[in-house]
User: What shape does this take?
Amino acid sequence: TLLIGFPTTITFSRYLASGAATLQLKRNYPSGAWENLGSTSADSLVWTVTGPTSSNARFKIALNSNGAIGDTTGNENIVQPSLTLTAPNGGEQLRTTTSTTVTWTRSNLAGAVRVELNSSYPSAIWTTLATGLTGNSYSWNVTQEPTTTARVRVVYQQTPSFADSSNSNFTIFR
Assistant: This one.
């Protein structure tokens, strides 16, 4: 399974087939046109997966000097990963010295996330509350100073561009 937005290394082997080769993708095999992903003289090519999603994408590698020399993969899945913060998502009233549960959902994203807090959104910096979380929740002991402009966010550690934050501010009070 290939995740949209993530780099993947596509490797292939050669036997008496030196020279540049072009890697192509057909997103809806057998229909549609082949899309050029790149050319290389090495035995691999790094490609950052793009959409749209597909359950029957295929890759084809062929020598530039002789397109009849090459190979095609079986079906590959291309999926859209997502990470969505569900609480606190805005409007909550959180008392200092209490505990609240930060929750999120994820799809097609295995691995660790971190939870961050911005106590003066949007002007303050994000500070880390926890890292290495592999589940979908975190019990947060609220110890921060009172504020009416707090937000939390959850960040996928492997690729920080996959993140989501509270939809609006929440309040921390004494």
